[in-house]
């Protein structure tokens, strides 16, 4: 298994832009995340190209639908050879269990993680859609439900990692965006941690986009991040 905790977010509007970066990256130093924009524009072939080049791919499509539909979508993602995929925990236990069971029927099961509460939602936003309590309370409840439904982990803010690690134990995956090297711009991220601090707080994987993809020398930027982790 790839020992690097870094997942580079390929937030590009087209395959050419994504592949221009990927050509310079080494699959032993990072994994790649394909999200809704790139997938909607470039489609499954971009995922297949990345997998063929030896990269482990996190397909970040955040499925949320009736159990049968989500299970079928997860099966389709697995057919592309992805390493990990995700869904919304708020789709409920039956939806998560159906997805997990469908993937378990395969000879090689990709990892399945859940989004709990989007970090863009505050308490007032949650109240408006009928969720009681603070974002943190809802994150904890939905992470517990995801674990109970047999999922491998959750996407979370690095600021939530310590508490979730303590509650959910060592095996549960905590995949954290909102990570910035000390020297990098915040971009539109508000509450961030450095890669070393996020890992120390309990993150198992770090999703890092612009600090690598927008760097003048993306390979050097990734290497500096990996060194900052080793030296911490
Ligand atoms: O460029 P940057 O490092 O901010 O990219 C972070 C990636 O993680 C993006 O693909 C973004 O959509 C995703 N993400 C996030 N915050 C969340 C959930 C996902 O930044 N709460």
Architecture blueprint of SSEs:
Blueprint: E1 6-9, H1 15-22, E2 31-35, H2 36-42, H3 44-52, E3 57-63, H4 67-79, E4 84-88, H5 93-104, E5 111-115, H6 123-128, H7 135-148, E6 153-155, H8 158-168, E7 173-176, H9 195-201, E8 205-208, H10 210-213, H11 218-230
Helix pairs in contact: 4-5, 8-9
* Major sheet size, sense and barrel closure: 8 strands, parallel, barrel
The assigned CATH architecture is Alpha-Beta Barrel
The fraction of residues assigned to DSSP E strands is: 15-25%
Bound molecules: cytidine-5'-monophosphate
Overall 3D form: globular
- Category from helices, strands and their pairing: alpha/beta
Q: Concise description?
A:
It is built from 11 helices and 8 strands.
Could you describe the 3D structure shown?
The model has no long low-confidence stretch (mean pLDDT about 95). This protein has helices at about 15-20, 35-40, 45-50, 65-80, 95-105, 125-130, 135-150, 160-170, 195-200, 210-215, 220-230, and strands at about 5-10, 30-35, 55-65, 85-90, 110-115, 155, 175, 205-210. It is built from eleven helices and eight strands. With about 230 residues, it is of the alpha/beta class. It has a single domain, classed as Aldolase class I (TIM Barrel, Alpha-Beta Barrel), CATH 3.20.20.70. About 45% of the residues lie in helices and about 15% in strands. The structure holds cytidine-5'-monophosphate. Cytidine-5'-monophosphate binds near residues 178, 207, 208 and 210.
């Amino acid at each position: 298994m790839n020992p690097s905790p870094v997942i580079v977010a390929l937030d590009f509007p087209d395959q050419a832009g994504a592949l221009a970066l990927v050509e310079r990256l080494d699959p032993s130093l990072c994994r790649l995340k394909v999200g809704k924009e790139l997938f909607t524009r470039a489609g499954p072939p971009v995922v297949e190209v990345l997998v063929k080049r030896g990269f482990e791919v996190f397909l970040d499509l955040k499925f949320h639908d009736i159990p049968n539909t989500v299970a079928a979508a997860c099966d389709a993602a697995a057919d592309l050879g992805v390493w990990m995929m995700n869904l919304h925990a708020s789709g409920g236990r039956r939806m998560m269990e159906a997805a997990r069971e469908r993937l378990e029927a395969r000879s090689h099961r990709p990892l399945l993680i859940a989004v709990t509460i989007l970090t863009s939602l505050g308490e007032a936003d949650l109240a408006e859609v009928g969720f009681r309590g603070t974002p943190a309370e809802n994150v904890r409840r939905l992470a517990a439900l995801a674990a109970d439904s047999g999922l491998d982990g959750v996407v979370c803010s690095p600021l939530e990692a310590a508490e979730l690690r303590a509650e959910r134990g060592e095996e549960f995956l905590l995949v954290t965006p909102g990570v910035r090297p000390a020297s990098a711009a915040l971009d539109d991220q508000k509450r961030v941690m450095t890669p070393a601090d996020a890992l120390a707080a309990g993150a198992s994987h770090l999703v890092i986009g612009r600090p690598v993809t927008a760097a003048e020398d993306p390979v050097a930027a990734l290497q500096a991040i990996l060194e900052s982790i080793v030296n911490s």
